[in-house]
Amino acid sequence: MTHLDPPFTVTLALTAHRQAERLRQQHTDPPKAKQVYLNALAIYAVSFYLNCLEFQTDSSNDNNHWLMDSASLKVQNCGTLECRPVLPNETEMHIPPEVWSDRIGYIAVQLDESLREASILGFISTAIAERVPLTELRSLHNLLDHLRQLQHPAPVNLGEWLQNVADASWQAMGEFFDPMLNPAQPAFGFRGDRAPSVYAEESTAPIIRRGKRLTLRTESDTIPVLLLMGLLPLSQQETEIWVQVESAEQTQLPSALKLLVLDETGTEVMYAQARSTESMQLQFTAEAGEQFGVQVILDNYSITETFIVNR
Fold this sequence. Notes:
Layout: E1 8-11, H1 14-24, H2 30-52, E2 57-59, H3 63-67, E3 72-75, E4 79-86, E5 92-94, E6 105-111, E7 117-124, E8 131-133, H4 140-151, E9 156-157, H5 158-161, E10 171-172, H6 173-176, E11 208-217, E12 222-233, E13 238-247, E14 258-262, E15 268-273, E16 279-287, E17 291-298, E18 301-308
Parallel strand pairs: 4-6, 9-18
Antiparallel strand pairs: 1-7, 2-3, 3-4, 5-8, 6-7, 10-11, 11-12, 12-13, 13-16, 14-15, 14-17, 17-18
């Protein structure tokens, strides 16, 4: 393998086998039942490992989830990992195409012949092939760095947006909305190229508009929304900012959906709730060098994006 740190070995306790057996009994097809059993053991091993490192995890209880060849494990404030079992003497990790998306990584978990121990070998962050040689895995040290970065990502530099530079996930409005499908683009509560703010006469700069798709999750559904940002430079020291959330598919947002602006310490400073409206928006002014967060919350699920205003 390409890493130096040894595998992390987990004893597969009786509790792990009881959970796996309960799930196996829900399937009458022998190959499928075996697959579910091994997937459950892999999930148990990765969950145990991450819990030792103080990451909070939650495996799926959805029966439909187990109909797929999926061994997913949710890691709080990070995303979903795929825990792929590797049998003794296998030299590759198998990743079915049905789990190539909506994952933050794929972990190889090698089970011994007796199914009494599982060795966590390493991971890859993205999947583009069904078979991945174990020699191509990244180390467990890299996995921890990967998860910690997802927990505390580097803030988006809004100063770069003014230079037309942005991460691919933040698209300019002309790219973000297909005019054939979305003829009415969001205006952030104003019309034209400039905002009707108290500072409008002082600035001739155009408004910078970018958007990002987010997927919120409930116990029974996934809800896609659009997080939209508008920037109006007022001076070298101040930038007026609009934050807006819209539904990506429905006419109304879930009534419980909340939009928060957080200061650099994570303290809430602004708040809005959808209450079945089509969109919700917050507006504020940020100074150069100031860092803030935007958080979208639905029930117990939240997504936070962090920004810094560097000019």
